[in-house]
Design brief:
Blueprint: E1 2-3, E2 12-15, E3 18-28, E4 36-43, E5 49-55, E6 59-62, E7 65-76, E8 79-84, E9 90-94, E10 109-115, E11 121-125, E12 129-137, E13 150-155, E14 160-164, E15 172-176, E16 181-186
């Protein structure tokens, strides 16, 4: 049992017969009234994101979880197949459990969060940044580099992103998997 002062990003809690992961939190102490904690939590079973407010000192049921590294193998029938690097055990997980799955490519290493007591996978955490190759890019206007103009592009996993006009087909780009935004061009 934990209290609201123990809440931190990435913590898993049990609430309303469901397991949630805390995405964001903010301790608020107004001038008048009692302090509270405003959180944004994501259900690990349904993927829904909720805003929830806890009063200060409220007890929460924290869930003991373990992070294990798994390698992504392939996708089949809306399920993603992963393999443990140490034991070669394979598991399959619904696409809903993985945020940013459009940026995952075969052979990539991800953290799988397991419920420590029940030994069931709860979520898959992508790396914050991935490096992918551009396979197709819409042609831009030649010489229009003075502004922050972007153009649609497709990466090797099939995901569509927006990139600056100086990016060409075959370039490697760094992408933020949480927002799907282009970060920078990577030198090969």
């Amino acid at each position: 049992m934990a209290t609201t002062s123990d809440i931190r990003k990435g913590m898993c809690i049990e609430m309303n017969h469901d397991t949630f992961i805390i995405i964001e939190f903010q301790h608020v102490k107004p001038g008048k009234g009692n302090a509270f904690v405003r959180t944004k939590i994501k259900s690990l079973t349904t993927g829904k994101v909720l805003d929830h407010t806890f009063s200060a000192g409220h007890k929460v049921d924290d869930v003991r979880v373990e992070r294990r590294q798994y390698q992504y193998l392939y996708e089949q029938d809306e399920r993603l197949h992963f393999m443990n690097q140490d034991t070669y055990e394979q598991i399959d997980i619904s696409k809903d459990m993985l945020e940013g799955f459009e940026f995952i490519k075969e052979g990539q290493i991800c953290d799988v969060i397991f419920h420590a007591v029940k030994e069931i996978p709860l979520a898959v955490m992508m790396p914050q940044y991935v490096t992918l190759a551009i396979t197709y890019i819409e042609p831009g206007l030649k010489g229009d580099t003075a502004t922050n103009t972007t153009t649609p592009a497709e990466v090797e996993t099939g995901a569509k992103i927006r990139v600056p006009l100086f990016i060409k087909t075959g370039d490697l780009v760094k992408i933020n998997t949480e927002t799907g935004e282009y970060m920078e061009r990577v030198k090969s």
